[in-house]
Write a structure and sequence with these properties.
Blueprint (H helix, E strand, L loop, with lengths): L3 E5 L10 H12 L4 E5 L7 H11 L3 E5 L5 H14 L4 E5 L1 H5 L1 H7 L5 E3 L4 H12 L10 E4 L3 E3 L28 E4 L1 E2 L11 H4 L4 E2 L2 H14 L4 E5 L7 H13 L5 E6 L6 H9 L2 E9 L3 H6 L6 H13 L3 E8 L6 H13 L4 E6 L7 H4 L6 E3 L14 E3 L4 H14 L29
Helix pairs in contact: 1-6, 2-3, 8-9, 9-10, 13-15
């Protein structure tokens, strides 16, 4: 028997460490709440096997984390839990739940509570109240149904992220992933019109102590024999002094592992990138997004194309690889701006490239008010919100013009592989094939 079972639904058909649930579980364990973590990406189960797992675990509370594109899988998981034992308390968290609590609660019969925003201490208090038989009505940061949807006042973001323990992956029934994930910061002060991360973590960026982050890395390298770590947090180099201390800590401990991170082109310089390379970084990911400055401004980006080219030049001088993200079907886009973006991509010394389509995630500016950007949401099936599907109509570049131009762009970029297969983005007009929660019976 366990107090809490945390479940990670399948993620875009990929296997990735559910590190958010690890940090959540660590807070529960620290406060004497027993917990298991089940990753359905790694543990492919049939429905009856999952339900048997729930019976044997016998949890009082089941928590599931949600993104928009796998929200329907969260429904499948919670429905299966309730069919095993209706009295199990079902809690949903994550960015999708945080962005639209009223809609989720009014349409999902299998959810008892939502955790809105940063989850650790809200979920801890909720579990402690539930396990102790106390009322949860006044817990900050939750939403629930009681003669209508009630969304309680939000909980203040965690000022000191160092109060979150380093996850004890062994205690959580850890299984090996190809790349370990470690969180460095939370929150983002920028205003990109397509990003909803501030709905969960707020606009104030908060960093973990660099020594504690390296403690976690050291455990992963020395205890679990990891060779690669990805640091997630949208603005790794926002505070260059933090990066300096972090790199010094890796070097002083003689830790040897390859790592990568995501950051902005206006938050780097040659000195900091060189320091990162010396400390084991092998690649930086830049959200460049577009190759026309007017479109960049409409996307909420505040940097120039000159900054883009300079940041890429510095990375190459530092002998770092560069992966860049680009978005198409943007406000103000047309054939000329698309071609400008193609030309920028050709000029930049990129090692990897990810092409996406603008997607109106719940809670974003383009989701709340698409008309203000000359957009119309034409598809609200969230399983298509993978950034690879055409779900927005753009008045400045309507479908009959965008589709042939975008197909031509993809061909010009030679994205077809040696075996003549094509990446997912080539099927951007097709309905996304749903990921299955359960293995075939």
């Amino acid at each position: 028997m366990v107090d809490v079972l945390l479940v990670a639904p399948p993620y875009k058909g990929m296997t990735r460490e559910p590190v958010g649930l690890y940090y959540l579980a660590s807070v529960l364990l620290k406060n004497k709440v027993s917990v298991k973590v089940l990753d359905l990406n790694l543990n492919k189960m049939r429905l009856r096997d999952f339900q048997e797992y729930v019976r044997k675990s016998d949890p009082r509370v089941v928590g599931v984390t949600s993104y928009s594109f796998n929200y329907y899988l969260c429904e499948d998981v919670l429905k299966a839990v309730k069919n095993v034992r209706p009295e199990i308390v079902a809690v949903l968290g994550g960015v999708h739940a945080s962005s639209m609590p009223e809609v989720v609660l009014s349409t999902n019969a299998y959810v008892d509570y939502l955790v809105v925003g940063e989850g650790e201490y809200t979920f801890l208090e909720l579990c402690q109240r539930l396990l102790g038989g106390q009322s949860c009505d006044d817990v900050q940061g939750i939403a629930y149904n009681m003669s209508g949807v009630r969304v309680n006042p939000s909980r203040k973001p965690i000022d000191d992220l160092n109060t979150l323990n380093i996850p004890d992956r062994e205690t959580l029934g850890y299984q090996k992933y190809s790349v370990a994930l470690v969180q460095t910061s939370r929150g983002c002060p920028y205003s990109c019109i397509f990003c909803n991360i501030c709905n969960q973590y707020g606009r104030t960026i908060r960093f973990r102590d660099p020594k504690i982050v390296v403690d976690e890395c050291e455990a992963l390298v020395r205890k679990y024999n990891y060779k690669q770590i990805y640091f997630f947090g949208d603005n790794f180099t926002f505070d260059k002094q933090w990066v300096d201390c972090f790199c010094d800590e890796i070097l002083s401990r003689r830790l040897k592992f390859r790592w990568s991170c995501e950051t902005r082109v206006d938050n780097v310089d040659l000195k900091i990138l060189t320091k990162m390379k010396n400390a084991g970084c092998h690649m930086v990911q830049y959200g460049i997004d577009y190759g026309d400055e007017d479109v960049l401004k409409k996307l909420g980006k505040s940097f120039s194309l000159a900054a883009v080219e300079e940041a890429c030049e510095w990375a190459k001088k530092s002998k770092l690889g560069i992966e860049a993200f680009f978005i198409f079907n943007c406000p103000g886009e047309n054939s000329e701006t698309m071609n400008n973006t193609y030309n920028l991509i050709q000029r930049l010394p990129l090692d990897a490239l990810e092409i996406n389509l603008l997607t109106p995630y719940p809670g974003t500016q383009i989701w709340r008010n698409p008309e203000a950007y000359g957009l119309k949401i034409i598809n609200k099936d969230y399983w298509n919100y993978t950034t690879k599907k055409y779900v927005l109509e753009n008045e400045s570049f309507p479908r009959e013009k965008f589709v042939p131009a975008f197909r031509d762009l993809l061909k010009r970029m030679n994205l077809v592989t040696a075996d003549h297969s094509q990446p997912e983005i080539f099927a951007f007009l097709e309905t996304e094939k749903k990921i299955a929660a359960w293995s075939s019976d």
